[in-house]
Amino acid sequence: MTIDLADAEQTRALGERLASLLLAGDLVVLVGDLGAGKTTLTQGIGAGLGVRGQVASPTFIIARAHPSLGSGPDLVHVDAYRLGSLDEVDALDLDSSLQDSVTVVEWGEGLVEQLSEDWLEIRLERPRGEGGADVRVARLIGHGPRWAEVTLPGS
Question: Which of 100, 106, 123, 130 has its CA 20 to 30 A from that of 65?
Fold first, then answer.
C-alpha cells in the first residue's frame, strides 16, 4: 500500500493512525534516506500511543524507551544507523522488551527482522524537486500472520 504525504504534519498524522493498530509485541521497521521522515512518523506513533517524553532521534544513544502514560504499550525507539552487525543488535537485548512494547527501528532493514516472525515495514521516500520540500511517500508492507488480517490506514 502506498500513501502520499504532503508534509511533515501528514507524516505525523499517519503515525498516529498507525498507533491505533499497534499492539505490544509489534515490530515496525522504518526504511528511508536521511530526512525521509522516519523520526517524524515515530513522533506520531508516540503521540498516538500516549507515551511519556519527547520522541526524538536516538542516533547517539541507539535506543530510547518511552513508557506509556495510560494502559497501552510502551514505545521503544531504536536508531540502528550506527549498528553494523547482528551481534551489535543482539547486544541491545531488544527481544527482552519486544513482547511488552511497540518497537520502532529506524535504519533496521536487514538487521532486526529476525526478532519477530511478524513486522510492519514502512518505506519512506522523499522525492526531490517534486511538489515541495516536505512531500513524502509511505509504502506500508506487512510481513507475517499478524499483518495478514490488518487493514492499514489509507487502504
Answer: 123
